[in-house]
Amino acid sequence: MSAREERRFSVLDMIDAAFFAFSALAIVWLALQLFSYGVKPGWPMLLLVVFWLVVSYLALPRLHRVLTAIYVPGYFIGRTRTSDGLLGDPVNLALRGNEAQVHRALTQSGWIRADDLTFAASVKITVNTVKRASYPTAPVSPLHLFDRQQDFAYQREVDNSPAKRHHVRFWRCPEGWLLPGGIAVDWLAAGTFDRSVGLSLFTLQVTHKIEEDTDVERDFLIQTITEADPAVDVEVIEGYSSGYHSRNGGGDRILTDGNLPIIDVRALDVPESVVTQPTDSRDLRPASIVFGSIVAALRGIFTLILAVGALASPADVLGGQDLTAAQVDAVKFTYAAVFLVVGALDLLLAWKAMSGRNWARLLLMAVGAVSVALIAVQTYGSRVQASQLPVTALTIFVLLALSSHRAREWSTRRSAHDEDLGARIVSKMG
Predict the structure, then answer these.
(1) Which of 24, 162, 315, 408 has CB 3.0 to 4.6 Å from 135, enough for a Cys bridge?
(2) Do residues 205 and 199 make contact, with C-beta atoms less than 8 angstroms apart?
(3) Does residue 162 register a pLDDT over 90?
(4) pLDDT in tens, 217-239
(5) Do both 56 and 8 map to the same domain?
(6) 246 and 122 share a domain?
(7) Is-contact 166 220, C-beta < 8 A?
(8) Which residue intervals of 251-388 are DSSP H helices?
């Protein structure tokens, strides 16, 4: 990378960091605004439910992310990290072999690949958990290792309920990366058993609660794989880490002896036709990008409707002002033109952000930050009117979504890929 490119990315990093910090302040401000309505019968009581949702799923995670970026080490320590930056489940397995061999080892031993975590999948697992209905491919929450979420996960449902299940997440090791002690492996994994559904101790979110002794789940996975195919070999690094008692990102107690088994699946025969492009979770369009882009597009459509309304019903725009016919025409066309430009810009930016254009993501965040700042200044010393809360909240939600780590990572990777592709095309044409 050239010095010019390094400076460019450094500036982009600072801009992203500023939006990230601003969105954290904005969501805390919104939570205080909601709380200001107090505990009263009627719709203010509903606002308290909204307050809990905002604090648990938006404010606390963002604050955790800001703080853990400071004090949680970024290097490998045998623990995963949650999306909020908290220490997650222990890394208790390693594997040698290519991706196709790993998939075969899991599937032939009765494990089922989990769905990617999408909005539709999240709704389905919530509904099925409440109904106690089976969902054998239910997604698992993202945990991070090597600064990315798991590449894929497998699970085995218990009693036909998504509330109880065996599950294990897998991360591809970076090329040339070695375990402490210089041991080479291809994959790291974290296997745990979901025993129930409850509230996170640290974020108050609804989440799965895991069984304390994670070694039992580790050994269960090894047993199922080795029984299904004797060609699979297992060696154990004893004392890989200190045996410890701790808690994961959900507040659940975890216990491990500190040993790290290495499962070798390289002896498994896999047809060459099965070997595909290596999975990389960073290439999957994150839900935060989808949410932010869709809301921005809806905002654009609403603004275009206002443009039509300004032309069709100028009285609503003029507010009863006594103007001549020529002045009425001038004002209504001005309003319509402004609404048209703003609406079209929102739609364009939403489309480009959904396509992975980082500049569009940054512009949408800039628009959101300015809007929130203006509302905060206008209502300084008082509270936001109830009629303004939904629009204000949606604007902050978009800002939170687009400033997330996953949104930034995906957009920058897509933009860099498109630039490289364009450069190669130009080079070939030249």
Answers:
(1) 162
(2) yes
(3) no
(4) 999 999 999 999 989 999 999 88
(5) yes
(6) yes
(7) yes
(8) 287-312, 314-318, 325-354, 358-378
CB of 151 closer than 8 Å to CB of 280: yes
pLDDT tens column, 339-396 = 888 889 999 999 999 999 999 999 999 998 998 899 888 888 777 777 777 788 888 8
State the SS3 of 208-256.
Answer: EEECCEHHHHHHHHHHHHHHHCCCCEEEEECCCCCCEEEECCCCCEEEE
> In angstroms, what CA-CA distances link 345 with 267, 296, 407?
56, 10, 20
Radius of gyration for the chain, computed over Cα atoms and rounded to the nearest angstrom: 26
Q: 132 and 230 share a domain?
A: yes
Q: How do beta strands 260-264 and 161-172 pair?
A: unpaired
Q: What are the backbone angles phi and psi of residue 272, rounded to the nearest 5°?
A: -60, -30
Kindly report the backbone phi and psi dihedral angles of residue 113, in degrees, each rounded to the nearest multiple of 5, phi listed first: -65, 135
Structure tokens at 9: 């990315």
Are residues 297 and 417 part of one domain?
A: yes
Q: Which residue has the tokens 């609404």?
A: 339
β-partners of residue 226 are none
Residues 225 and 249 in one domain: yes
| Number of domains comprising the chain | 2
Indicate the length of the chain as a whole number: 430
Confidence class of residue 6 from pLDDT cuts 50, 70 and 90?
low
What the block records as the tokens of 275 is 């070997």
Do residues 362 and 315 share a domain?
Answer: yes
> Is the pLDDT reported for residue 124 higher than 90?
no
Range of the domain at 319: 3-68+284-429
Same domain for 83 and 128, yes or no, is yes
Domain boundary among 231, 255, 279: 279
130 and 265 in a common domain: yes
Q: Of 279, 312, 335, which residue sits at a domain end?
A: 279
Q: What is the dihedral of CA 292, 172, 421, 419, to 10 degrees?
A: 50
Q: Strands 112-113, 93-96: parallel, antiparallel or unpaired by DSSP?
A: unpaired
**Are 335 and 310 within 8 A, CB to CB?**
yes
In terms of Cβ atoms closer than 10 Å to its own Cβ (0-12, 13-18, 19+), residue 255 is middle
Reduce the secondary structure of 114-166 to three states and give it as a string.
CCCCCHHHHHHHHHHHHHCCCCCCCCCCCEEECCEECCEEEEEEECCEEEEEE
Beta bridge partners of 171: 188
Dist. CA 72–CA 271, nearest whole Å: 42
